[in-house]
Design brief:
By secondary structure, the protein is an alpha+beta fold. It is built from 26 helices and 20 strands.
Length: about 700
């Protein structure tokens, strides 16, 4: 009778049906009596003295889908969860601070983490046991999920004192700050050299990338190595970057038909990807390919940037201008089915002659290189220009056919921080490639975020279906600041700079650690978690502390605001010992060290952006990779007055003789002004 009732309930909805998260809504028809993260669930656990089962994932997570299908949809499993536990489901992309705390707990307990994250808590939210994916039956030397539930429930009933003591010990461990943060140390160039040497030791000289399979893009490591090359002209640093970028762009990690990058490669050769596509990967990889294009001038890097940006604008842009979060790896229940091809499918579209060329160039065979004898497209070697023209036509035909396939699920929530990263990437790509559409798209996204996700009570994190919710985390502020400053340096609209200045002050007030260095992940106005996390490790995205430090250095330098730079330098000094211990883990923070050590310059162009001469000066600036320089355009009239209110120094930077004039300064002590793009280019060489 009980199972029959649960089967009827499965056709109905649980509390998650009232949520906006696509991930939570995917579980709204489970027979599990799910609660969203919040006081209602916490109060029930306290009142009934039941342990909490906390399940964390996200809507495009392959193994989250698997565990739902195998366990959460099953009435017999739901019956155990509903009888013994208060079950809470969390979208990690809505609550990265919650995810961070409990991921740290599971990593401490098991030595590994990942999603789905499965954690058992006391009613006081303290963790005592956990793992990631649990199978429905015992396999791979893993207990089944039902066995785990039974064992945890028995331990809670029979050994509660031991369980709560264990939870207290683990919580105490999580609360302890790293020993390295107890004292500050000066930042030196040796930190950069250590970071380079550690990257060199991890580098795969054959296939590029760092370490063995699975292999992640590590865009922030490449960004650091480019900056290290600018500083030292160490050839190996640039070689590591280009080898990795070439391998990723030629392998299966890149979508050769539709553009954009998959999440990571399951092998060392970058051939077989995990097929989900995340907005942040598109942003971070487009940005580093832009920087590599500025350094090398290679047209194929510009082509990858365009392919990635076009994918985002086509498939991840909301009608209002903001950007959705991700696309799933799976379609029709199979990972990668949307992306792979058989020779016969390609021949049916292209015809025998064109298909033969395509098969040869992209490694398509009857045996295949993926499941069901299908092929993941990858370049055997880069084609020459004449062949590329033919391939471009073939790719367009295949794209049109692929668009008629069943698409992977798209997570259509808008996250402030990830939009900040994409705004920065589009702004930089548009400026460097002279593509106004990309800058305009960044402007639209910034307008939306500032209009829909900025409230009097603070920046909000998530927007979906008309609903804006959850106070922003440190990464939301830091990533949006990065986007706004990049957008200002692309279109030179003072509005973005004014918004960045305001948000920087708000970020410092809401997240700053008053006792030690840096910023907490969670807003001080949020209800407290069991610990208040602070992080400098750069994972799939850079840490909020890394980006906040770098952006405050850049913003302080541009505005002439010593307090912003001082705040960033204090953070760096506090993090320097931890950074020295493991520089490879925080490459974006190493970029901040590079900026702090300088030399860094302010480049002011005085002139009218409507005039070709001024735009030529701007073009000379945007063509170069100048990671330690900041820039502004001082126009006469209303826009000029708005900029002067933000950067009083620019009042002195005027067009000379009515001509566009560039000033290259350091600490606002300027070299002789120049009025020709070639002269500006000469001043910029070797700097930044």
């Amino acid at each position: 009778m009980r199972f029959a009732t649960l089967r009827i309930m499965a056709l109905q909805t649980n509390r998650l049906a009232r949520e906006k998260s696509p991930y939570l809504l995917q579980h709204a028809h489970n027979p599990v009596d799910w609660y969203p993260w919040g006081e209602e669930a916490f109060a029930k656990a306290r009142q009934e003295q039941k342990p909490i089962f906390l399940s964390i994932g996200y809507s495009t997570c392959h193994w989250c889908h698997v565990m739902e299908r195998e366990s959460f949809e099953k009435p017999e499993t739901a019956e155990l969860l509903n009888r013994w536990f208060v079950s809470i489901k969390v979208d990690r992309e809505e609550h990265p601070d919650v995810d961070h705390v409990y991921m740290q707990a599971v990593t401490a307990l098991t030595g590994r983490g990942g999603w789905p994250l499965s954690v058992f808590l006391t009613p006081e939210l303290k963790p005592f046991f956990g793992g990631t994916y649990f199978p429905p039956e015992r396999r791979w030397q893993m207990a089944s999920f039902r066995e785990v539930l039974t064992a945890v429930a028995q331990a809670w009933e029979q050994k509660r004192q031991e369980v709560t003591a264990s939870a207290e010990q683990l919580t105490t461990l999580l609360s302890q700050p790293p020993a390295e943060t107890a004292a500050t140390a000066p930042i030196t160039e040796e930190l950069l050299h250590m970071g380079f040497r550690q990257a060199e030791a991890m580098f795969d000289p054959v296939h590029g990338g760092f370490g063995d399979a699975p292999k992640f893009p590590r865009a922030h490591e490449l960004a650091f190595l480019l900056r290290y090359w600018v500083r030292t002209r160490q050839a190996q640093a640039l070689q590591m970057v280009t080898t990795t970028l070439d391998s990723m762009a030629q392998g299966g990690l890149y979508d050769h038909v539709g553009g954009g990058f998959h999440r990571y490669a399951t092998d060392a050769q970058w051939l077989v990807p995990h097929f989900e596509k995340m907005l942040y990967d598109q942003a971070l990889l487009a940005r580093v390919y832009v920087e590599a294009f500025q350094v090398t001038g290679r047209a194929d890097y510009a082509q990858v940037v365009r392919g990635t940006c076009e994918y985002v604008l086509r498939d991840l842009q909301a009608p209002e201008g903001a950007f959705y979060s991700a696309e799933d790896a799976d379609s029709e229940g199979e990972e990668g089915k949307f992306y792979v091809w058989t020779p016969s499918e390609i021949t049916a579209v292209l015809g025998p002659e064109e298909a033969a060329l395509f098969h040869q160039v992209y490694g398509v065979t009857e045996q295949g290189n993926f499941e069901h004898r299908t092929s993941i497209l990858h370049l055997q070697q880069p084609p020459d220009a004449s062949v590329e023209r033919r391939l471009a036509s073939a790719r367009r035909k295949l794209f049109d056919v692929r668009e008629r396939r069943v698409r992977p699920h798209r997570d259509d929530k808008v996250l402030t921080g990830w939009n900040g990263l994409m705004i920065a990437a589009l702004a930089r790509a548009g400026a460097a490639l002279e593509e106004p559409r990309y800058v305009a798209a960044a402007e639209r996204a910034a307008e939306f975020v500032l209009g829909a996700l900025v409230r009097e009570r603070g920046l909000l994190r998530r927007y979906r279906d008309g609903d804006a919710r959850y106070l922003g985390t440190l990464e939301d502020y830091a990533f949006l600041l990065d986007g706004l400053l990049a957008l200002y340096e692309a279109d030179f609209n003072p509005r973005w700079l004014a918004e960045a200045k305001r948000l920087a002050g708000e970020m410092d007030a809401r997240f700053r650690d008053p006792q030690e260095s840096g910023w907490f992940l969670r807003d001080r106005e949020e209800p407290a978690l069991i610990v208040r996390p602070k992080e400098i490790y750069d994972g799939a995205t850079p840490s909020g502390n890394s980006v906040a430090t770098l952006i405050l250095l850049r913003l302080g330098r541009l505005l002439g605001d010593d307090s912003l730079e001082a705040s960033a330098r204090k953070a760096l000094e506090g993090f320097s010992q931890a950074l020295a211990r493991a520089p490879y883990g925080s490459p974006w923070l190493l970029c901040a060290v590079d900026m702090a050590l300088g030399p860094a310059r302010e480049i002011i162009i005085a002139g009218d952006l409507a005039q070709a001469a001024t735009r030529a000066m701007v073009r000379a600036l945007h063509q170069r990779f100048l990671p330690r320089d900041v820039s502004a355009v001082h126009e006469v009239g209303r826009e000029g007055a708005a900029l002067e209110a933000l950067i009083p120094f620019v009042k002195q930077q005027q067009p000379l003789g009515g001509k566009a004039t560039a000033y290259v300064c350091e600490r606002f002590a300027c070299q002789a002004p120049v009025s020709k793009p070639e002269a500006l280019a000469k001043l910029l060489e070797g700097g930044g």
